[in-house]
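Progress report, Aim 2. The chain analyzed during this reporting quarter is listed below.
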Amino acid sequence: MGNIKRNSTVAIGLLMSISLLSQAFTLTGSTYYDRCESFVKAMNSVNPMGANSDPKYTGPYFFSRLYQNFDIDNTNKELEVMYDKYLNNPSLYYNSTGSGKEFYPHATMHGYLLTKDKMTNALKAKIKSFLQLCDFNSRGGTLNLDMMINTSGFLAAEEWSDFKDKNGKTPEQIKAYSRPKILARLQEFINKNCEELDAYTYFPTNIMYVRMLAEFAKDPEVKQKAYWAYQQMVSGIVVSWNKGLYVNNPPRSKGWANLFTGAYASDNASTALGWLYFGNKEGFFKMIPCMTVSNNIASSVFWMTYKRAVEPIPELIEAEKLKTFPCVYRSVIEQGDNFKSRYSYQSENYGLCTQHEELKDSKNWNKSYTWKETKRIVLSWRSTVPECVFSVCQDNPDRPAEKIKVNALGYGENPFHRVLQQNKAAIGIYNVPTEYNSNGDKLYRVYVPFSKKGIQKQIEKNGWVICHTGSIMFAFKSTEPYKWAKNQYQIKNHDVLVLEDDSCRKGSWVLETTEISSEFKGKNQEEELNNFAKKLDKQTKLSTLDYKSENPRIQYKSLNGDLLDITYFPPTVANTDQYKVNGEVLPFNKKYLYESDVINQEINTGILTVKGVKGLKTINLNQISKD
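Predicted structure tokens for the chain:
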């Protein structure tokens, strides 16, 4: 059964002192619900009481206590105090930070529907009154915020026949506004993928309101669509989950540390979800920093830990167990005016993935937010520290269309960077025009963080930076002269490689990755790195072509013997024959939402094919749910 190990003598279930906040939790469990139980018990050992309680961060801890029948009387009182704060001063809600206007209604409605049988009548009345402060016939600023408002309002309208929101909208009016939007978005998830698939913060936010609908909606069609949209979303985690590593390109990344996705990288909600659903190779999930009421991971993931009707179908659990390595996985996300075609190579101890974006209308390239937060290349490996990721980054604007300021470190790249991958190797090329963001922000600079903790040994030979992580090795080469940044980029626990020429806008790079196979084995890490270096010198070849033109080209013969060939082209030009592998033009995947050895789904079909021990099984995601 699930359990929790803690470096403390205080038993699970007791209110903890503030000293607990400095301690870590190691969560375990052999099945999905064992792991869920371990997670919830850890939440119940953290004291959520305090004047700064709010529905988004603190609410899930209170609802977890009610769900587990723990400290019910006191928890009811504390929730009443929390909602009284907003009822007595509604401006605290309307002026809330951290997207509170959307998150607060979701957590309140979700928690209410889950635990209302444990609530006092007084608390139920206050929750209803709080929800009536909300404007449910409105839009949020992003996909997840918009849907949190729509779904919470819809379920409130189903729950109370006399309900009226902030603007006096009746249940009938709220449902007339939200129902078609909800159904259209759920069908889009089923047919085209959630556009925030694998976004390590936003994707779990999307799953939590989809599950809420699947569990609690009374409308049969909404409930059915939500149930199958939930399964389709879990399918995306199956193909990205490498027995504990979450391997894929986040379409929305929230900074460098958001890319940490290993067993020790607990500051990531998607990693926590993958562990809950499928477990990992390590057999545990370590909460570092520890679980606290200010940690968004627990308050987000809780909505997937309670036991009711909706859970991953057995076929998905079985398919994940049947994954073999190495393997290649392709996917596509259709997001409004663009496609994101993604390629992922997964081996036993790591995963390498790249992404190609293609605009449907290249004339509107600067209005697209494709590059605002996306990561075009991500390498993750097994490690006993969180910092086990590598990526090539470029400075880019925080708001591409508005050109306000430089984005935060690690968020994304500007649109003038192209990448190509074949199995274990990847190449990239960039050519940022001089007129792009010429306001002094230098939104063209390349910077490459190297983990001081995740990399155990590192050497530099013949232009390569060659790294040993203890579990794998990788080598990076820039065609442009580089140096190590002194004070330019401050990324904790990382050395950052930058170009010598601070004004350089044109260049390219190569990345090779490998397991530490027998051909590289040595008596120590330095010898293994040197063996790797010899292979690179002997078997690889890098050629730059047409470098003085506006469309520079790079060719690279990889350790595998593949010839990767990419010609740069700007976002105003359509993709034609610029990507080639072994002389053949590479057609980017626009057909399959998922194309892997265990799960396949064509775009706009709603038909999921899943591998099982008895063969392939076809699942119609538009069918009537089991309920």
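The longest helix spans residues 171-192. The CA atoms of residues 445 and 502 lie 7 Å apart. These observations will guide the mutagenesis work planned for the next reporting period.
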